[in-house]
UniProtKB/TrEMBL annotation:
Keywords: Cell membrane, G-protein coupled receptor, Glycoprotein, Membrane, Receptor, Transducer, Transmembrane, Transmembrane helix. Signal peptide: none annotated. One of its GO terms (molecular function) is G protein-coupled receptor activity. Its main location: membrane. Residues 1-41 are annotated as: Disordered. It is found in: Cell membrane. It comes from Takifugu flavidus. This is Metabotropic glutamate receptor 8.
């Protein structure tokens, strides 16, 4: 036992002396101390490498620092995908920008997606987006809501300039005709056209032109009231007068075929009573409209509520629905259709007598104008896309994201919602309509209200222009440039006019089979037979032939007239 114990002690002494000798030798070699920790281990020395792409488009590991009890990093030697030596962020989620909400990742409460508040939503809090009130839109930063800009049809707009120009020309022309008729009020042409009814018709034509200015004026209670009154009143004046005239012509010639007495209610006073009775129906309808729905203005936010909230506009207009508008014009359209029917019935009246043919051409053209107007007006109303309170889908970028050691943004970078910028732009362009589609549907330049207003005013002006041009311009031309034709002609009684018109039809039917002289002799004998009865029939100057349009075939010898 003694021998073994002494042997162990000798080994420990040898190990201790060997260690101390090694330390002394290490401290003396190369002048660098050799250090051991408490466990007898030497301290660690590490080189830090980065996997980089070289200029030759090859990859290799390069030393960018070392660690010996502390970090020695050479940042300037580091390289990232973009070539920028600055360190990219290496976090789970980056702070969201203004107008974006945080959408927490399920199962990772400290990480989130940044989702932009789209459409008419604004950032109400850090985690929610809310919809703005209907009359408001989000501001530029989407941190609150601001009122939507209110617009109206401006006088300088192309939608207003064209109808206003046409109306001004029409008002000048109508005023010129009225002044000419008043100045030459007692001349044969003015008398033959029916002075009283002509002035009523010219008043209606003037109102049709003037309504354009009310339709474009800034809406308020007064303007909306006048719109309701005069919108259908101008047409009612015009077509009530034309209907009364065509009905009178029809009754006169129908009565002349049956008896020698003149029909009732063909005097100028009777014609005025009939005309204003027809007009009173329109005024009564407007009065009921005022009582049932008093006029007021509204702001329509739905008409131009575009996908882009910044382009949204509210349209200030009178509260007149399409149905109310058609009801207001419906009675006038009924008068127009009835007048057209009478114009067709009197189409056989010789053109040398009164205005049956010009009135007929006027009504045919007017019907064509309004047949084109109605589809455009209601087609525009139906095709305009109404956008509801939540226009368009809200873009969602719920894509998974990850930490990439060498990703799109470099080491430790995080993709915002996992949506690259170019890809997100593509998604947004697919969700939003094209600029052309937005322009044609709901852009401020092509508002539904603008198109309907322009179409309505131009249709009214064209209808008035047709009546003015076909019925009165030929008369004004003769009055001013051919006064020699505007002279009194031999007065003809009602029966003489009707008999001449009837025999004119016989002449056209028998002229091809019988000698011309025989036919004329029969015409003269027929007039001579009714000579006694002609003395008792009141004169109808409005049915007298136009002085400038007498047909040679209807010229009768003087001794056949009274």
């Amino acid at each position: 036992m003694g021998r073994r114990g002494s042997k162990d002690d000798e080994e420990e002494e040898e190990e201790k002396s060997s260690t101390e000798g090694t330390r002394e030798d290490g401290q003396r070699s190369a002048g660098t101390p050799v250090v051991f920790n408490e466990n007898g281990d030497a301290p660690g020395r590490y080189d830090i490498f980065q996997y980089q792409i070289t200029n030759r488009s090859t990859t290799e590991y390069r030393v960018i620092g070392s660690w010996t009890n502390k970090l020695n990093l050479k940042v300037q030697n580091m390289r990232w995908k973009s070539g920028d030596p600055s360190l990219p962020p290496s976090v789970c989620s980056v702070p969201c920008r203004t107008g974006e909400r945080k959408k927490v990742v399920k199962g990772v409460p400290c990480c989130w997606h940044c989702e932009r508040c789209e459409g008419y939503h604004y950032q109400a809090s850090e985690f929610t987006c809310e919809l703005c009130p209907y009359e408001m839109r989000p501001d530029a930063n989407r941190t609150g809501c601001v009122p939507i800009l209110i617009i109206k049809l401006e006088w300088h707009s192309p939608w207003a300039v064209v109808p206003v120009f046409i109306s001004m020309l029409g008002i000048v022309a109508t005023s010129f005709v009225i002044v000419t008729f008043v100045r030459y009020n007692d001349t044969p042409i003015v008398r033959a056209s029916g002075r009283e009814m002509s002035y009523v018709l010219l008043t209606g034509i003037f109102l049709c032109y003037a309504i354009t200015f009310l339709m474009i004026a800034t809406p308020d209670v007064g303007v909306c009231s006048f719109r309701r009154i005069f919108l259908g009143l101008g047409m009612c004046f015009s077509y009530a007068a034309l209907l009364t005239k065509t009905n009178r012509i029809h009754r006169i010639f129908e009565q002349g075929k049956k008896a020698v007495t003149a029909p009732r209610f063909i005097s100028p006073a009777s014609q005025l009573v009939i005309t204003f009775s027809l007009i009173s129906v329109q005024l009564l309808g407007v009065f009921v409209w005022f009582v049932a729905d008093p006029p007021h203005t509204v702001v329509d936010y739905g008409e131009q509520r575009t996908q882009d909230p910044m382009a949204a506009r509210g349209v200030l207009k009178c509260d007149i629905s399409d149905l109310s508008l058609i009801c207001s014009l419906g009675y006038s359209i009924l008068l127009m259709v009835t007048c057209t029917v009478y114009a067709i019935k009197t189409r056989g009246v010789p053109e040398t007598f009164n205005e049956a043919k010009p009135i007929g051409f006027t009504m045919y053209t007017t019907c064509i104008i309004w047949l084109a107007f109605i589809p455009i007006f209601f087609g525009t109303s139906q095709s305009a896309e109404r956008i509801d309170r939540n226009p368009g889908p809200v873009l969602s970028e719920n894509r998974s994201f990850h930490i990439s050691s060498y990703g799109n943004a470099g080491y430790g970078s995080a993709q915002r919602g996992g949506c690259p910028r170019d890809q997100c732009s593509q998604w947004r362009s697919e969700l939003l309509p094209s600029p052309l589609t937005m322009f044609l549907s709901l852009s401020p330049g092509s508002s539904q209200m603008y198109i309907q207003t322009t179409t309505l005013t131009i249709s009214l002006s064209l209808s008035a222009s047709v009546s003015l041009g076909m019925l009165y311009m030929p008369k004004v031309y003769v009055i001013l440039f051919h006064p020699e034709q505007n002279v009194p002609k031999r007065k003809r009684s009602f029966k003489a006019i009707v008999t001449a018109a009837t025999m004119s039809g016989k002449l056209s039917q028998k002229g091809g089979d019988r000698p011309n002289g025989e036919v004329k002799t029969e015409l003269c004998e027929s007039m001579e037979t009714n000579r006694a009865s002609l003395l008792k029939i009141p004169e109808s100057p409005d049915l007298a032939p136009h002085p400038w349009t007498l047909s040679p075939s209807l010229i009768i010898k003087p001794n056949t007239f009274l």
